[in-house]
């Protein structure tokens, strides 16, 4: 993981442990979400929480998010892409 992904991973670990009651020791990049008792409904709840935390918007179809590492990579890509995009109403020079 690059430094940005490491930071995202640590923040994600805190959120999953505190708000979704996942044991911190189980939260590893290779851990599958379904093995952490994060089913498809819980994935949606996690994604909404992560949108708030990271100021990003997941696409309607975020693609394959099977592991913690997949989620970290998706957040990193979305942060990069959405920071590069001008916000609505921003002046274009």
Largest sheet: none
The percent range for strand residues is: under 5%
Class by helix and strand content?
Answer: mainly alpha
Oligomeric state, counting identical vs distinct chains: single chain
CATH fold name, please? Non-ribosomal Peptide Synthetase Peptidyl Carrier Protein, Chain A
Specify the CATH homologous superfamily.
Answer: ACP-like
The CATH architecture assignment turns out to be Orthogonal Bundle
Structural features, described:
The structure is a single chain. The protein is mainly alpha-helical and 93 residues long. It has one domain: ACP-like (Non-ribosomal Peptide Synthetase Peptidyl Carrier Protein, Chain A, Orthogonal Bundle). Helix content is 54%, strand content 0%. Helix 1 crosses helix 3. The N and C termini lie far apart (36 Å). The relative contact order is 0.17. The mean pLDDT is 88.
Short description:
The protein has three helices and no strands.
Descriptive labels:
93 residues; mainly alpha; Non-ribosomal Peptide Synthetase Peptidyl Carrier Protein, Chain A; single chain; 54% helix
Helix and strand topology:
Blueprint: H1 3-20, H2 40-54, H3 68-84
Helix pairs in contact: 1-3
């Amino acid at each position: 993981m690059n430094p940005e992904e490491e930071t995202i991973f640590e923040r994600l670990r805190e959120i999953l442990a505190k708000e979704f009651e996942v044991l911190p020791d189980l939260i590893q990049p290779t851990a599958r979400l379904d093995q952490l008792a994060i089913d498809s409904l819980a994935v949606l709840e996690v994604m909404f929480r992560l949108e708030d935390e990271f100021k990003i918007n997941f696409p309607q179809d975020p693609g394959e998010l099977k592991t913690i590492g997949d989620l970290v990579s998706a957040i990193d890509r979305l942060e990069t892409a959405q920071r590069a995009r001008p916000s609505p109403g921003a002046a274009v020079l």
